[in-house]
Amino acid sequence: MRGLGWRVQGSGRYLGDSEAPDYVLSNTGVREGGASAAVGYRDHRWNATAYYSWFTRELGILRASHIGNLTDLNNAIESGTPWYVADFTYDIEAPRQDVEHHLVKAEAGYAISERDRIVVTYGYQADDRQEYDIRRGGRSGTPAIDLFLTTHTADAVLKHWIGKHIHGKVGVSGVYQENINVPGTGIRPLIPNYRKQSGGVFLLEHFPISPKVEMEAGVRVEATQLDVAKYTFDDVLITPQHDFTNSAFTLGTNWSVKDSLRLRFNVGTAYRPPHVSELYSEGLHHGAAAIERGDAQLTSERSLKGTIDLEALWFGGRLRTDVTLYANSIADYIYLRPNGVELTIRGAFPVFQYVATDAFLFGLDATLQAKLTNRFSLRNRTSLVRGRDLSQSEWLFQIPSDRTENALLFELPQAGAWRAVEVSASSTVVFRQSRVPAGLDFTEPPGTYHLIGLSASASRTLGKGELRIGLQASNILNTTYRDYMDRFRYYADARGTDLTFWIRYSFGKHT
Description:
Blueprint: E1 4-15, E2 18-19, E3 24-25, E4 30-42, E5 46-60, H1 70-79, E6 96-111, E7 117-132, E8 145-163, E9 166-181, E10 193-208, E11 213-231, E12 237-238, E13 241-258, E14 261-272, H2 276-280, E15 282-285, E16 290-293, E17 301-314, E18 319-344, E19 347-371, E20 376-389, E21 394-395, E22 403-415, E23 418-430, E24 449-462, E25 465-474, E26 498-506
Parallel strand pairs: 16-19
Antiparallel strand pairs: 1-4, 2-3, 4-5, 5-6, 6-7, 7-8, 8-9, 9-10, 10-11, 11-12, 11-13, 13-14, 14-17, 15-16, 17-18, 18-19, 19-20, 20-21, 20-22, 22-23, 23-24, 24-25, 25-26
């Protein structure tokens, strides 16, 4: 049928325990499977697509992160060596997670005129999640957390052209979400049952002033209602309700100074209502190996952010630079703050409390790429961010470390039957995070580390489709390190050398 197209895709992974340079990271295996299918239709006025995806994962949680008493927990954090190390295996035992995800999405568009178009989108997600703890009496096969989350989303957008000096889009959106704790765990749920409903309207307009300058302005208003059902520690059912109404705006300018230089300026406000986990968490979060506690008094984050983007080509296009500078002032910024350790019947764990503060973040992201020859190029990617807690007059907790990556890239369009040959060697340096609140964390930030990586991939025609194969190697020097942003750094080193070989076959693709 003319105008009709389709696509199917599948993937899978079956991994055993990861390994640090000096020991096995026991119970860190992964089993994943996924598939998706899409079908679409298009003619001169209509277009429609339907999409479905399925994903499942069984993930082992580092065994050494679950500790029986406070003394052993403190020893594990201070010693730098996991208390539990076993031989390599593909088996996954408790603690572990099982996740299954389904997504259905449908979209239809209709061209009202040559330049005006309406697009309607609907989506449905179903997420089934179980977390298994090490439990006595042969109950490790009974989930300690069993959640079923469904989400419905709907959007309608009108893309309009008023004239050559004004065009944009206006739309409405809505979300309905429901979380159910499946009975039978025998443990108080980490987060309660809840229903969340939100609806919003937005307008975004572009104003071309000249061939080189375009301004844009937008506004969004949204209302969210969160209905919660939970039991207190006295087994009394309570049903608190939270209502959030927020608005945001954006104002920006795109300036093409010349063909090889473009500047973008933007200032805008934003908002984020607190998630139910930030309001009501009360218990062990297995995936983070920590006890987390919410605060029902938290309100929406509100921010004012400014950005400057520069894209430039130098030396006849042989050097490309992309630089973004940003500053962000956030009122009631929500984050997890360490709050001691606690011994429970399930073991000893660090405790983190959701808190809000006034914060200021600023930084830059930069990419520079130099073309050395027709085949070789050099690339640098650098990211710097600073965060201050204005209420406490200290650095913010859990802000990413400075990092820079240098890579040598090789590209070859054709090599016999193979094409799109790509080879790269990378060097990544992540610096020690020295800007931290004094005495807050359970241990000092880990030191600077340097990782070397290699990757290669190529494609060729095979039958009526295209075969692409690749090899990726990370941390090839088997460097011992821990990353500041990784919660499991309290218990063990990060992974050592990791080799991944992958194959992808695209049906019906011709060159």
